[in-house]
From TrEMBL:
This is Cyclin-like domain-containing protein. Keywords: Cyclin. PANTHER family: CYCLINS (PTHR10177). InterPro entries: Cyclin (IPR039361), Cyclin-like_dom (IPR013763), Cyclin-like_sf (IPR036915), Cyclin_N (IPR006671). Belongs to the cyclin family. SMART domains: CYCLIN (SM00385). Residues 57-141 form the Cyclin-like domain. It comes from Cirrhinus mrigala (Mrigala). The keyword Disulfide bond does not apply. Pfam families: Cyclin_N (PF00134).
Amino acid sequence: MIDQVTGAGALPFAVQLKALLDQEARYQPKLSGLRIIESAQDNGLRMTVKLRDFQVRELLSLTRFFGFSSETFSLAVNLLDRFLAVMKPKHLACVGLCCFYIAVKTSEEEKSVPLASDLIRISQNRFTVHDMMRMEKIILEKLYWKVKAPTALHFLRFFHSQIQQQMDAE
């Protein structure tokens, strides 16, 4: 659906932008959940900005290690934020790795998707493939299986393509 919105000049700029903004609104983390994260103190019981940032750095490391696209990383962060906005951060390492795995399966070619056991081994986490599959199911259910979210990267590419079209037309 995102590809249709940003496809080669199918609709006028304003219509394409409105469609992308409408999609984005449906895939944003709940604001109340993000405010809780921002205001939380590091007491070990709640998600904090520091814990979230650490997990995002882990996602970036995995993205670079496997050579995956920026789109995969952006989607993984989007999934993580959306999930953390509605759930407590219990088993954060497993949540982060599952968000990454979902993003990889959504954004990358099927032949590039690593095995769950390889992800666990490489990330040096202490949970099983079964734990990971169970957490993946929980995340997908809490996000209502809506995983193909527009990210900041989609907007950047959209604006870049519009600028490029303007420059080519001149």
